[in-house]
Amino acid sequence: MKQIDVCLTPDLLHLHKVENTIVVVADVFRATSCMVTAFAYGVNSIIPVATIEECQLYQERGYLAAAERNARKVDGFELDNSPFTYMDERIRGANVAMTTTNGTLAITKSRSAVKVLVGSFLNLDAVVQFLKTERYDVMVLCAGWKGRVNMEDTLFAGALVERLKDSYAMAEDSAIMAWRLYCQGKDNLPSYLSSSSHIQRLQRLGIQKDITYCLQHDLYDVVPVLRGNALVSMQI
C-alpha cells in the first residue's frame, strides 16, 4: 500500500525520504493559499525563490514580483502575501516571482521529489483527487514558521491524511499526530486555531479576513505543480 508521511517543518526534511515521493508543500497562512488563489484567478506561472535578491532579479526581467518577510510586504515589490492581492485582473496571464518567509523556501528545498505540489485548504479536494491517481508515496511538507512547527500547516497535513487514509497508509507518528489533531479541530478550525502563534501574529496586523479565507475548504479545483523552476497549474 502507498504511504503518506508528514514532515512538520523543513528543518526536519533531512530525516524524511523525498526521492521517489510526491511532496505536497503547505503554508496555509499564507503563501500556498496565495498561490492557489493566483492560479484560480488566471496567473500563468509562479517562480518560487528563497531570497529577496533572487526575486529582485526576476523583477528586473519584467516579472510581477511578490516578497514577504515576517508577514509583511517587502518595500519595492508589487505584490504581497495576501490572497486578496491575487484577485486582480493584472495577474491574469502574468508570470510572478515570489519569495516568502517560509513557503517558497519549503518548495525550493523539495526539488528532488518526483513531483512538488502546492496544497492549501482552498484546493484540498483537488490535491486529494490528483494523488489518488498516482502510484508514488506522498509526503506533506509543512512550511512552519522559521523552522518551528505550526498548527495550521499541521492541520492541513491532517486533513489530507484524513481524506487519503483509505488509499494510503500512515507512514510515521507525525502523520498520525497530524490526522488526530485535524479530527479534533475540524468542526471549527478558526476557534481551534485562535490561540496559535501565527493567528496572533496576523491578527496584530489586522488581517482577520485572510485567516478566515485561508481556512475555507475546497474552493478551487487547481493543483499547482513545480515544472522546472516554475509552478504551473493542473486542472482537476
TrEMBL record:
Enzyme class: hydrolase
Keywords: Hydrolase, Magnesium
Cofactor(s) needed: Mg(2+)
Reactions catalysed: (2R)-O-phospho-3-sulfolactate + H2O = (2R)-3-sulfolactate + phosphate
UniProt xrefs under Gene3D superfamilies: ComB-like
Enzyme Commission number(s): 3.1.3.71
InterPro entries: ComB-like (IPR005238), ComB-like_sf (IPR036702)
Domain of life: Bacteria
GO molecular function: 2-phosphosulfolactate phosphatase activity; magnesium ion binding; sulfopyruvate decarboxylase activity
PANTHER family (UniProt xref): 2-PHOSPHOSULFOLACTATE PHOSPHATASE-RELATED
Family from the record: Belongs to the ComB family.
HAMAP family per record: ComB
Full protein name: Probable 2-phosphosulfolactate phosphatase
Highest classification ranks of the organism: Bacteria, Pseudomonadati, Bacteroidota, Cytophagia, Cytophagales
Gene: comB
